[in-house]
Amino acid sequence: ATKAVILVGGPSRGTRFRPLSLDLPKPLFEVAGHPIVWHCLTAIAKVPYIQEVCMIGYYDESVFRDFIKDASNEFPQIKIVYLREYQALGTAGGLYHFRDAILKGRPERFFVLNADVCCSFPLNDMLKLFEDRDAEAVILGTRVSEDAASNFGCIVSDAHTSRVLHYVEKPESHISNLINCGVYLFSTECIFPSIRSAIKKRTERPRLVSYPSSENLESSFFQDEDDEEKKNEVLRLEQDILSDLADSKQFFVYETKDFWRQIKTAGSAVPANALYLQKAWQTGSKELAKASANILPPVFIHPTAHVDPSAKLGPNVSIGPRAVVGAGVRIKESIVLEDAEIKHDACVLYSIIGWSSRVGAWARVEGTPTPVNSHTTSIIKNGIKVQSITILGKECGVGDEVRVQNCVCLPFKELKRDVANEVIM
Ligand code: GDD
Ligand code: GTP
Fold first, then answer.
1. Centre of ligand 1 from the C-alpha of residue 419, in Å
2. Is 61 within 8 Å of 82 (Cβ atoms)?
3. Ligand 1 site, residue 233, Cβ cutoff 6 A
4. Contacts for 366-370 with beta carbons within 8 Å, 24 or more apart?
5. ipTM score for this prediction
6. Of all protein residues, whose CA lies closest to atom 37 belonging to ligand 1?
7. 112 pocket-lining for ligand 1 (C-beta < 6 Å)
8. For residues 183 and 139, is the Cβ–Cβ distance under 8 A?
9. How many helices (H) and strands (E) does the chain have?
């Protein structure tokens, strides 16, 4: 049997996703018509014999309840459970803490997916490599530009055998442009002992390594035994485990040529939306709007949204539930969220319009396109770093004929005059 784990993080993470994560946990933010984590589930559902998915995080139990109910109806063959960490345990700490739950049913191996990446999740290809090489671990890798690489985990591999020779998390100097996509397949027999020996190493020399955890403030006040133990439960897959795997285990990399992007900043939801929409379009998804003179595919329009037939939408546009788009509106490369209203002849480009926000008639809300394959959502404009994507938080208002360029606007703001390159608080 095979299982899957999705690492969803918790409320102290996803801060770069503000203002969009102020009202909703990032994994539930919708791109291409579905929550980010739903895209992980669809990929998992395509792997034969996966019966159980564990979502591990430290959000409150109630946060994923409705999502799990809906997803269980949509993927009836998979049992979805949420396992809550009592504090942030790190990317491997949660796996270890919940090892009994993961090992239940005796799976020989399990996938681990970071919830905050957008990709085609070629899990079946990873599984094939795993079997072909009799692997103990497989990591998904992708090539990025040299200057982007050091923001990720970097992999040095043998070109012929795909064996991982060396792994360094966010290295200071360049070692490779093959990076960690945040998707793994582990044999249960290998990974839990590896985590255990990392813990052992740690307890043998606890004072030599410091594990700062801003999440767990108490530990800096009370340095008693108990806290030592708690701190020891924090384990990072990347720093504490993967390098050791590269040294001693049957560890391989599957390199994807397909799309891959991280979803960190709020602006990165726009490329993620575009990539998932393009994938849905290529696979002939029935959810997308039909192409026409005014619909340049791919475009997703929620069935409860109202779009005037004279509005021109696309490419890469998602319109959320009950949103209203008026006559003569132009929207491209953007996400319009639930209950938002775009009045007649307004123009929305490279932007996210927050829940229940209103964009006035003839207004322009615009960002700037970023180069294809760029792994950042900030750009340099007149010598300063600004947001490439314009984001309006929840319940913002843009007046008629007002122009908003490269701005991030916190919830409940009214923009009555033109603004550019600002964070509006
Ligand atoms: N349950 C749980 N508990 N999840 C966590 C925790 C935790 O304490 N900490 C992080 N996560 C989840 C996040 O929600 C995210 O899905 C994933 O684990 C990785 O998050 P980070 O720890 O912030 O790492 P990162 O995104 O900067 O880098 C990782 O991903 C890159 C690819 O996107 C690393 O694995 C890099 O090597 C990799 O390139
Ligand atoms: P399209 O035929 O709409 O594709 O126009 P285009 O190829 O000239 O521009 P594109 O679609 O790449 O980008 C949108 C641009 O179209 C914006 O800069 C707007 O100025 C303009 N635009 C087109 N139609 C409208 C409209 O109905 N209302 C507004 N406000 N702007 C529009």
1. 34
2. yes
3. no
4. 366/390, 366/403, 366/404, 366/405, 366/406, 367/267, 367/270, 367/333, 367/405, 367/406, 368/406, 369/333, 370/271
5. 0.78
6. 153
7. no
8. yes
9. 11, 34
Residue from 292, 316, 344, 347 whose mutation best tests the ligand 2 pocket (most atoms within 8 A of CB)? 347
Q: Which atom of ligand 1 is nearest to the CA of 14?
A: 14
At 297, which helix (H) or strand (E)?
none
Global pTM reads 0.89
- Give 53's strand partners: 4, 80
Residue 36, ligand 1, Cβ within 6 A: no
Q: Find the range with the poorest average confidence among 4-8, 114-118, 220-224, 368-372.
A: 220-224
Centre of ligand 1 from the C-alpha of residue 7, in Å: 7
Tokens 């564990």 belong to residue: 54
Q: Pick the atom of ligand 1 nearest to 57's CA.
A: 1
CB within 8 Å of 74: residues ≥ 6 apart:
none
Q: 3-class secondary structure for 97-129?
A: HCHHHHHCCCCCEEEEEECCEEECCCHHHHHHH
Ligand index nearest the alpha carbon of residue 183: 1
Tokens read off for 425: 């608080």
pLDDT one-digit tens code per residue, 261-314: 999 999 999 999 999 999 999 999 999 999 999 999 999 999 999 999 999 999
Distance from residue 41's CA to the centre of ligand 1 (Å): 17
Amino acid 83 reads: L
- Which two three-digit tokens encode residue 277? 């929409």
311 Cβ below 6 A of ligand 2: no
Radius of gyration of the chain (CA): 22
DSSP states of 131-171 as a string?
HHTT-SEEEEEEE--HHHHTTSEEEEE-TTT-BEEEEEES-
| Distance between CA atoms of residues 141 and 167, nearest Å | 11
Closest C-alpha residue for ligand 1 atom 22: 91
Q: What is the pLDDT of residues 9-43, one digit of tens each?
A: 999 776 889 999 888 999 999 999 999 999 999 99
